[in-house]
Amino acid sequence: MLQDRSEESFSQAIDRVEAYCAQEGFSRVTVPVNLANAPVDAWLLEKGYRVSRLAVRMLFGEMEYSVKTGVELSRWVM
């Protein structure tokens, strides 16, 4: 978990994950990202990651959605 949301700390964390995966012989690294955590998505694309799957959240009417702690139920059917 990152305490500060800087590109530098995020990049260091991803570098460590990639190094661990390479050490263990994994061929891929998958990073799930919620776009509410922007600009993480842009940072990953700049590092050479690509989008492989998208999830869509549907809201009723003019409801405002904000990320909350706890269990995410809006995508449970996926």
Q: Which whole number gives the mean pLDDT?
A: 77
What oligomeric state do the depicted chains represent? Answer: single chain
What's the gyration radius in Å?
Answer: 15 Å
Number of domains: 1
- Strand fraction equals under 5%
Q: Percent of residues in helical segments? A: 25-40%
Spans of at least 5 consecutive residues whose pLDDT stays below 50 are none
Q: How large is the count of helical segments? A: 2
Structural class: mainly alpha
| Number of DSSP strand runs | 0
Overall morphology: extended
Alpha-carbon distance between the termini? 25 Å
Q: H/E order of the elements?
A: HH
Give a quick account of the main beta sheet: strands, pairing sense, barrel closure: none
Question: Key features?
Answer:
single chain, mainly alpha, 32% helix
Topology, element by element:
Layout: H1 7-24, H2 40-46
Write a short abstract of this structure.
With 78 residues, the chain is mostly helical.
Task: Explain what you see.
The chain has helices at residues 7-24, 40-46. By secondary structure, it is mainly alpha-helical.
